[in-house]
Amino acid sequence: MARLDVIMPQMGESIAEGTLSKWLKKVGDTVKRDEPIFEISTDKVDAEIPAPGAGVLAEVLVEEGKTVAVQTVVARIETDATAASAAPPPSREAPAPAASAGAREGVGEAGPAPAARRAESEPALARPAPPGPAAATPSATTVRHDGDESMEERLRRKSTPLVRRMAAEHDVDLASVQGTGLAGRVTKQDLLDFLERPQPAPATRAAAAAPDGVKVIPGPQSEPWEGDRVEPWSRIRKLTADHMVMSRRVSAHVHSVIDVDYTRVAQVRAARKAEYAERGVNLTYMAFIAKAVADNLRKHAVLNASVMGEATIYRNEINLGIAVALEWGLIVPVIRRADELSLIGVARAINDLAERARAKKLSPDEVQRGTFTITNPGVFGTLVGLPILNQPQSAILAVGGIEKRPAVVTGADGADAIAIRTKGMLALSFDHRIVDGADADRFLADVRTTLTDFPDGAG
Questions:
Q1: 243 is known as an active-site residue
Q2: Residue 308 and residue 239 in one domain
Q3: pTM here?
Q4: Which of 147, 152, 204, 452 qualifies as a FRET site for 291, CA 20 to 30 Å off?
């Protein structure tokens, strides 16, 4: 008789925990290897987690809605179906074996990574040891990827980047917050508990009625009237709200809008759409726009950059995030090294990522390390949108609705005429701390030129 542990996976480099949002199987159900067994929700991705092996679900150790640390055993599968069917139900009083004080933190925090992920770069930290004397702090010029802080560095800081951002938003000195995490680390839940303590100003009825785990954004609070329906925020809605408020406060948002003639793109699309469809790819305007953006980011590097303190990180990779609207929120899967892809490669990647995002089939790596984001409110008929930056990126492009309009065109003889053209607007939001208006406008102009004169060989 053998039992197989089902663990909470690490859904991204900087993710220390995950929320088990829904069980897709119940105790006693037969499961197949790689069959979805439960759903997980983090601030990076919602995903279905497959069973590590075939058998019968014998124990469920973590209930729906609970947030636990990565590597926590959430269930056990009995590989002997006969023995599993006779297994008693799990004790509700038995804690998950791998749970720790860190399990109280909110989703999206950085924390100790599994030993397997750290083994290659930090073998000495594969098993956390009690913190000793602090090592020398890396110099300001050292380039580290998001989530690459060692565990010792995190412990010395006594918090994660997410907690420090939240503390900055609320003007909280972390030294005044009692930490319950590993080695006294201040967790997200510690900070939320601190913020929920009575403040000098009396709480309003709406604030008092906020659902558990939802942080009330400071400001005037509404009260429900008779007949109103009050719906608590989902986890993805709460995380989106927190991220958007933080982004507005962190970056100096400026916007530029440009009008684009897509007539040439429409011609190329009409000529190639059937050919691409035969190869299983839906050729959309978004593919052309993403290709044009990727091809121009290399020479406008500040639009593919991030702020690091009082320095700018110019990213070597061009990784395009494509915002996908879901029924339950918004997610931004990433096309890695998009500048190295052909038009059909970009189109295929967009189709694939969007379909799997809606089916909750994305892997953690596919929503990480984006360097520039494109969002498409125009698909709903919007003329133009002015989006908020997807931190820590320096720019985001919004695609407006594309339609036929009358326009003035100049013929080969220099005479002007009114003609029907396929037109639409592009709006760029950028961080004015590092991107000047001239930089943004030159980038937009080059993207427009690429689309207006889209090359024949860009397939």
A1: no
A2: no
A3: 0.60
A4: 147
